[in-house]
User: What shape does this take?
Amino acid sequence: MSSDSPTQNSSRRVVVIGGGVVGLCSAYYLTKAGAEVTVVDTRAPQDPSCSTGNNGMVVPSHFVPLAAPGMVSKGIKMMLNRRSPFFIRPRASIDLIRWCLTFMGNSTQAHVEKCATTLRDLNLESRKLFLEISNDESNDFNLQKRGLFMMCATQQGLDAEGATAAYAKTLGLDVEMLDIAGVRALEPNIEINAVGAAHYRDDCHLAPDNFVEKLRLHLEALGVKFLWKAKVEAFATSGRKITDVTVNGTPHQPDHVVLTAGVWSKELAKKLGINLMMQSGKGYSLTLDKPIALPKHCAILSEGKVAITPMGDRLRFGGTMEIGGKKDVIDPLRLQGVIDTIPSVYPQFTAEQFEGVNPWNGLRPCSPDGMPYLGYSQKWDNLVVATGHSMMGLSMGPATGKIVTDFVTLGPSARTLNGCEVDRY
Ligand SMILES: Cc1cc2nc3c(=O)[nH]c(=O)nc-3n(C[C@H](O)[C@H](O)[C@H](O)COP(=O)(O)OP(=O)(O)OC[C@H]3O[C@@H](n4cnc5c(N)ncnc54)[C@H](O)[C@@H]3O)c2cc1C
Assistant: This one.
């Protein structure tokens, strides 16, 4: 991370609410642009967050938003299985019902076509920025440019991935369909039972816990102020401006506010009269420190929806999307569903190897259309919102931070991002 000297807006004071990957990347580019940044977070710096235990994949391949054709019927089938990777936790909540109805309405091909280029561009921009950051920081977070396998256990799965890969090619992405011999040639160090894979060669992977730790230390060295174990409780406003941000009872008076509080952004936005339709999308991961075998590539099991990422010597397995799930409540059956899926494709890994491994859980901030909320709301002149990245917050983190900085320094017309409008619901 280069420590460029501030060039512009050196008098601009910015409060960033939330020190996850999106908040830290925003602080990084804001500081480079000369802003005086304070990051506020309810956690202690070493506490896990959604940004630490995830699968660390940087994914131009993920140009299809979560709300896509077939998701509703697949989701209903999966919900009948207690170990399935997708689940909506039922509860009597108007917000949840509205979210589900909006998700269903968005699960169309027209929606995919509307969002695909924005998602591709955000992920490709981030990939470029991750490479820049890794050059500046001696790649202390294991960034690997080997691509990602969408690994298929069945011919039906491979055919479906083939159709998505054909679409990816029309978007200019570098993807190749491989049969099992092709996969094994690239992965000689691990046993694989599959029919084949789509190999998205633009994708990368990294160790997200190392990335956010490195970024935090770098920002501290640059003079960014961190308020840890500090909660943003309230706002005071005047006209179209936020004048005060109250943190643990103490008011702060920034020139600009950046809202990057992940799934908690919804409640904070509500205090400012903004309706961010959002639900948590809970997932789990398990990390083996000494895995019996180590693949070279990250992979997603296309049918089982388990993600596998090598992180240096470690190997992380992640999965499940539990809409409306609560933080730190572990559902043993759903976790077992992740563990049971792995040996079907990677037979060297047995359930016993996961005994005693501490499960991590995180809440993805999920909008009902699979697109982030990124930009100004129509209500406030000094608030930029950056949240709702769902399963791609790590991947889109650096691009988001850069865009946030453009908005703060240049105003609302700095960028046009189709489908990311803050006031769209
Ligand atoms: C199993 C799993 C695997 C995943 N794999 C990937 C992957 O491979 N690639 C990818 O791109 N994404 C992945 N994701 C998604 C990714 O982890 C999230 O999109 C991302 O971490 C969201 O980052 P964030 O900064 O928006 O939110 P968070 O990391 O949740 O950060 C928000 C912060 O705001 C703080 N906060 C909340 N309220 C307040 C308040 N009132 N005052 C102050 N601070 C507050 C919180 O303490 C928190 O630290 C995965 C997620 C899961 C669960």
Summary: The CA atoms of residues 4 and 72 lie 47 Å apart.
